[in-house]
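ok trying again, last paste got cut off:
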Amino acid sequence: MNEKLVKAMNEQINKEIYSAFLYLAMSEWAMQKGLKGAAHWLYVQYLEEMAHGQNIYRYLQVRGDPVELYPVAKPESGWNSLLEVYRDVLAHEKTVTASIANLANISQDVRDHATSIFLEWYVTEQVEEEGNATDIIQRLQLAGDNLSGLLMIDTELSARTFAPPVVPGLPPAP
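nice, full thing came through this time. structure:
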């Protein structure tokens, strides 16, 4: 694989693990506020982001390219409201979307078709990630200061489940 692409893929592993830690910090914030449904939703998001990083890690291994793990920065941990949390979720997902788009562009520039195909799953996933955050923000805005509305949304968030992502072309983990 092209050296520039390998470096960018390794950097993306770090970004995915940072994302996981950010969502874990958000989950803890929600739990401390008694918002167990939001805490659960954000914990599932943590699991998803870990899986995203692990899949890139495995992809590099399958391709025979070196994996380099970088230190993970400490995530933010203070929010004033659940709406602020989900606004930060959306803002963060937009940065991840830009990073994935950059990876896709590099893979196309160096004509690495296998990696371009691998990254298509991530491109599609980012559309879903931004859409989910936007939907929750809209619902929280509709609820406004209505505590009953907030608690109803919190209950709905608790229904989220985790299924490890299946990325086409990536063999099962050892």
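cool. The longest helix spans residues 113-143. The domain at 3-157 is CATH 1.20.1260.10 (Ferritin).
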